[in-house]
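Archive entry. Fields below.
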Amino acid sequence: MDYFLTEEQAMIRDLARQISDEKVMPVRAELDEKGEFPWDIVHTLAQSDFFGINISEEYGGMGLGGFEFCLAVEELSRACLGVSTTYAANALGTYPLMLYGSEEQKKKYLPDIASGKRLVAFGLTEANAGSDAAGIQTTATLDGNEYILNGTKQWITNGGEAEIYTIIAMTNKSKGARGASAFVVEKGTPGFSFGKKENKLGIRASITKELVFDNCRIPKENLIGKQGLGFIVAMKTLDKSRTGVGAQGVGVAQGAFEAAAEFAKERQQFGQPVISIQAVQHMLADMATEIEAARALVYSVAKYVDSGVKDVSKESAMAKLFATDMAMKVTVDAVQVMGGSGYMKEYPVEKMMRDAKILQIYEGTNQIQRNVIGQALIKETAKKK
Ligand SMILES: Cc1cc2nc3c(=O)[nH]c(=O)nc-3n(C[C@H](O)[C@H](O)[C@H](O)COP(=O)(O)OP(=O)(O)OC[C@H]3O[C@@H](n4cnc5c(N)ncnc54)[C@H](O)[C@@H]3O)c2cc1C
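PREDICTED_STRUCTURE:
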């Protein structure tokens, strides 16, 4: 379907597709097998200005929006979700600075992020605080002109490879969710180290590590926004980035669909290509329809978020929920269309199926997305009374 992209948007999509075809597809199986961080691809994306797509021109970016970012994410995800997770988590880590950073923080960090010189990671989750993010135990204690950080963050994408970390920590435990604050912490700060590297089912090109803070002292100026605003920073960040997770779902599903359709044209059974069998055609028809429906939702929510509307929690949760549940179903179906071949590592769809699962889990599980949507609906119906 034609979404009538502007010349600039089409250029971003086409360049992302070219990078995916030429640089990502040839190495994705090896990156997956070895669990290797895709530095060469990160450098190519940096050279193409992809890290600055939605950062304003004032800070060295392209000054475009979340919609254009989603176009890039979708194309990278069509080739490899591990690579696109590396890229998208960078934006996740940048949003706290873009949304709540001081002028000094923006000037200090955003130009290096936009140029791809320094990667970013976002640290919220801990061993005992996943969906229940308000349960985080990492503390930040003010001591003169410094905060002292103590605690461990778990499962942080880009951990160890990133130079800049946006971290949520408790500044006042007695205040519960209102006692959290957001900070920027640089790699190399004494007391900040990296723990376990996870060995994962999928997105194996993406690095997932522990962040360990042991009496890590950071300047007071590294507080993002105001003390006590940490959860608002985190939730508004997720509202912004969840549409990107939806775009990942659309991309990986598109990649799986293309591989399955191509295979079905070639594979002969009962003297005919299996694509001629109506049962197979119906599977492909459902897959194509579901992908297009998810793409339409993701694109319209991305544009809605870019319009500057204040509260986008419900819509971004809908885009994430719908597109990622779709991606799981479509990648499983792609394996089915290809039969035993789909299960083999010679073809890309078994990896896509393994990779897709994470989309239903990170940035808030899809159960949590349903909670977010449900709570918004309750508010809306209360307003109408
Ligand atoms: C590969 C990977 C990368 C990640 N990257 C990052 C990152 O960069 N930064 C970061 O901060 N975090 C990251 N995470 C953490 C991720 O966001 C959490 O895993 C996710 O939010 C879910 O938390 P949990 O795994 O602790 O599940 P749990 O919260 O323990 O949930 C277990 C089950 O209970 C359900 N559940 C829990 N509470 C509710 C509820 N109230 N209503 C309905 N169902 C509920 C969940 O849906 C799930 O099915 C990453 C995780 C992974 C696996």
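CURATOR_NOTE: Residues 230-266 form the longest helix (37 residues).
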